[in-house]
Amino acid sequence: MKKSFPLFVLFIVLSVFALSGCSGSDGSAGAAGPAGPAGPAGPAAPVDAASLAASASQYATAQAAGFTGTQAQLLSLSYASAAALSYSGTEAQWSALQTSANAAVSVAASVSPESCAVCHKTAGTDHQAYYDQLNKIDAAGIQVSNITYAYAAGTTTVTFKMTKLGSDFSCKDADNLNIYWSDYDGATFPANPVTAAAGGRTTMKGTLTDDGAGTCTSTYNAIDLGNLAASNGTITVYGYDELLGTVPGGRVKQVKYPYAAVLKIGTVGYTSAANVAGCEKCHTIPYGKHGNIQGATKAIGITSATEFYTCKPCHKDDGTGGHFEWPLAVNDPTLAASYNAGTALTAAQKTEYGYKTTLMNDVHMPHAMEFLYPQSMSNCTVCHEGKTATITADAQFKIETCKSCHPFKGDSKLSLPTLAGHNITSTTAVCNTCHSATGIAKTFSSIHSGYDKKIYAGVTAGVAKKWKDIFTVTVDSATLSGTDLTIKFSAAKSDPGSLTTLAVTDIVPKVIVGLYGYNTKDFIVDAHGRTIDTARNLEFDWGTTNARFTPISAAAGKWEVKASLANWSSLITDGTVKRMEIAVLPKLTKVVGNVDDSTNLEATSPVTADYNVPVATASKTFNIATNAFIASASPIVNVATGCENCHGALGITFHSAQYGNAGVVGCRLCHTTRPGGSHLEMQGRSIDSYVHAIHSNQPFDIHNIDFADPFTLMEYKLETGDLGAKTFFSYPTFTTKNCKSCHAAGTFDVPDQAKSLGGTLSASRDTLKGRTRSITGVPSYVTGPAARACGSCHRTNMINRDDLGGLVSFSQHTKDNGYRTVATDSTVFDTVITKIMSAFK
Fold first, then answer.
1. In contact, 548 and 563? CB cutoff 8 Å
2. Please, what is the Cα angle at 799 between 797 and 800, to 5 degrees?
3. What is residue 377's predicted lDDT score, i.e. its pLDDT?
4. Torsion angle defined by CA atoms of residues 542, 544, 547 and 552, in that order, rounded to the nearest 10 degrees
5. In this predicted model, what pLDDT tens digit does every residue of 341-365 receive, in sequence order?
6. What residues contact residue 196 under an 8 Å CB cut-off, 6+ apart?
7. Strands across the sheet with 820-822, in order?
8. Three-state secondary-structure class, residue 57
9. Cα(first)–Cα(last) distance of the chain, in Å?
10. Which residues in the chain land under pLDDT 50?
11. CB 633 within 8 A of CB 589
12. Closest by CA position to 225, among listed 153, 325, 322
């Protein structure tokens, strides 16, 4: 097998094509024209075309001051000669222009295209190939079948058949194999008191023998389990073969061939209220607890999947939970930090924060209290789709249910109400005495709908329906006349279930026009920026004022607006801009009453602000030469089946709901490559750099983190793995190499420089609260698309580990095989991009 990179390395590239070669020329040399009527300055030194382009910004400034000379003359003429060529500025201004122009020429001369694809052309594909080795649960993996059970004279015998890659396989050759018995009492899976020392787990694995044809026999007599033939319960066989590694800082195993099978004995009527398919939205497919224990298997003699049966041998319904860090993190952060540092809890504290190892607790508590679950916990439908009526029934309204998600102390907005008569510290009290259809208080389902109303409008036929499946906004037409772009767009509503009274007229749109640079996938004009005046360059919120937008009409869900591109006419004329992206980001807004979400348990106050929910929209690509829409490029990222598997509605995780539903192209309209990352040090604002760094666990705004606070420090360690953390979060598929969890097939590899612009990386944050570190003094750089996008994960790992040596070496590597230029001012980006893209004209 090809040797793989360590974990947490290159995590996909938000680009479509692999580099096919650094074709093109840096341009031919050309001589400057005569000095002009001022006389003796003589011809300027020969300057190549790319260098001339590099000083274009300064030349434009000179022209605006009346200068009629050539671009090459700007580099060498005296002030007197410039004045003779109609330059109206001062001598100091001319000198500053010359200094800036020559600096731009110097910068341009120092950069050359990246050569990453020479050695790393298939790096992303290789990462995915490594990931695809994990969890081979199919006919080509390991299969377990024909489980049988027998008991005689204190000896338990279990037999089963194993195959691997379609051939007989000896159980003795498997790296790991377990056999467990799980009692079922008609409602729960209780712990076995005989094996209390082992957490109530009942192993049945004994001496293994194999008949040479794949039939394995386990003979167990260490403990007389008695004859279980007349009992109710399950026998679970599970394990793995070919361990590839373990996620650093944890016990998540990465294995090529996990396997599991279940045999029911007697009557086992257990049906989970959750779906393994819900776990698979964020985690591995198929889902494997600890990386290798399957959540769903085919039981012998049963035609449907047995969901979560394999969890029951360990996660007993009456077992004693040991993860006190979960409730402590939200109920008593100071104690949580002390406990994490090794301070033992008192017996009273263990009682107060104790919980049972039910699947509900062991899933709800870490997702609500520890892990970075990217949705509201009120969005139960993610894991319980089609079963929300079961989980919100009055019978489920018990203290244990509430405390599995909510803190029960402190002043958190999520805290349970400390009302008179509410014994929230009890572990046995029920709420449905009063909270029921026949009681005096609200029912459970009226408090918790089972879905986040910021994402879903309601439930139809047991399935929650998203707002974006009801409301859609479409860009209908666009016409460019001179520098005026007239755009028409409209909204439609589809609501057969009558889930909402909101109408298309409740939509307030945001219009964005992005100008692609050099026929790449990236925008040379930052529509979200402010380079003209205080308003956004080419972004317009309906009902506000922007000198570059003129609203024409708005009625009955149809809008028309005119955008002026006059400020960028030179870019269109010289061919730098040939295409543009027109997007509408709608906001569905209205005061509609109560909304229950993760910040308000009962939402007793009506919504007074915008009821901002995500509406579906799609941008369109406009060709300037043909004055018509053209087919948009194939998507790089599968938002609906990638991002929204975990995030539900992408926009509301980081922004307001109107963002995120125009696909990643919509994200790129604001997350351009021009600026550096504002919240992420040493990263770009471009969406590839941002997303890769976030999913590699680089913290936002590190300069605002108080490292002197014990709890904050504990959380930082847990999230980043830095500062000697015992364990830390990993991308939910347990490695960042799973490119296809977000990306479309074939878009994993090194960016094609002809189709992706370089970008700016932000500087390091050198002053941290309560911490000194080795990495300091890193300036802002302009670098290539691969160094920006692919390098984002590499940098994150080094930043999180404070690995100065590694970061310096990596940065030098990207410079030696591409470019890395200090962004001393805003002109450096344009200078570098102009020079690099001249190779691809």
1. yes
2. 65
3. 87
4. 40
5. 899 999 999 988 889 999 999 999 9
6. none
7. 759-761, 781-783, 820-822
8. helix
9. 41
10. 1-44, 419-420, 591-610
11. no
12. 153
Contact 279, 211 (CB under 8 A): no
Contact 2, 126 (CB under 8 A): yes
Amino acid at 23: S
Q: State the pairing for strand pair 781-783/820-822.
A: antiparallel
The residue type of 311 is C
The two most distant CA atoms of the chain are separated, in Å, by 116
SS (H, E, C) 425-494: CCCCCECCCCECCCCCECCHHHHCCCCCCCCEEEEECCEEEEHHHCEEEEEEEEEEECCEEEEEEEEEEC
Q: Kindly state the DSSP code that residue 709 receives in the 8-state scheme.
A: S
Q: How far apart are CA 566 and CA 481, in angstroms?
A: 11
Give me the DSSP letters along 801-831.
Answer: TT-HHHHHHHHHHHHHTS-EEE--STHHHHH
Closest CA to 327 of 432, 425, 396, 198: 425
In sequence order, what are the residues at sequence separation of 6 or more whose Cβ sits closer than 8 angstroms to the Cβ of residue 524? 515, 516, 517, 518, 571, 576, 577, 674, 757, 833
Q: Where are the beta strands (DSSP E) in 267-414?
A: 288-289, 293-294, 296-298, 305-307
As given in the structure block, the two tokens for residue 280 are 């698979």
Going along 247-342, which residue ranges are E strands? Answer: 253-265, 288-289, 293-294, 296-298, 305-307
Residues in the chain: 841
Number of Cβ within a 10 Å radius of residue 85: 21
| β 305-307/296-298 pair status | antiparallel
8 Å CB contact between 472 and 557: no
Q: Is 540 exposed, middle or buried (0-12, 13-18, 19+ CB in 10 A)?
A: buried
Cβ-based neighbours of 152, under 8 Å, separated by 6 or more: none
Which residues neighbour 799 within 8 Å (Cβ) at sequence distance 6 or greater?
681, 682, 698, 775, 807
Cis peptide before 496 (omega within 30 of 0): no
Per-residue tokens: 232: 């109710």
Residue from 265, 148, 296 nearest 215 by CA: 148
Amino acid at 398: K
**C-alpha to C-alpha distance for 75 and 100, rounded to whole angstroms:** 9
Which residues touch 228 (CB under 8 Å, ≥6 apart)? 149, 151, 156, 181, 265
pLDDT one-digit tens code per residue, 526-569: 999 999 999 999 999 999 999 999 999 999 999 999 999 999 99
As a 3-state breakdown, the chain gives helix, strand, coil percent values, each rounded to 5, of 30, 25, 50
- Cβ atoms 799, 700 nearer than 8 A: no
C-alpha to C-alpha distances, 427 to 146, 398, 592, 681, 804, nearest whole angstrom: 42, 9, 37, 45, 50
DSSP helix/strand/coil, 288:
strand
Angle at 700 between CA 643 and CA 586, to 5 degrees: 45
Dihedral angle of Cα 450, 453, 455, 456, to the nearest 10 degrees: 70
Structure tokens at 443: 């029912």
Strand partners, 430: 398
**pLDDT score for 146:** 93
Nearest to 287 by CA among 276, 275, 297: 276
Parallel/antiparallel/unpaired status of strands 471-481 and 616-618: parallel
Element (H, E) at 564: strand 558-564
Tokens of 323: 């993860």
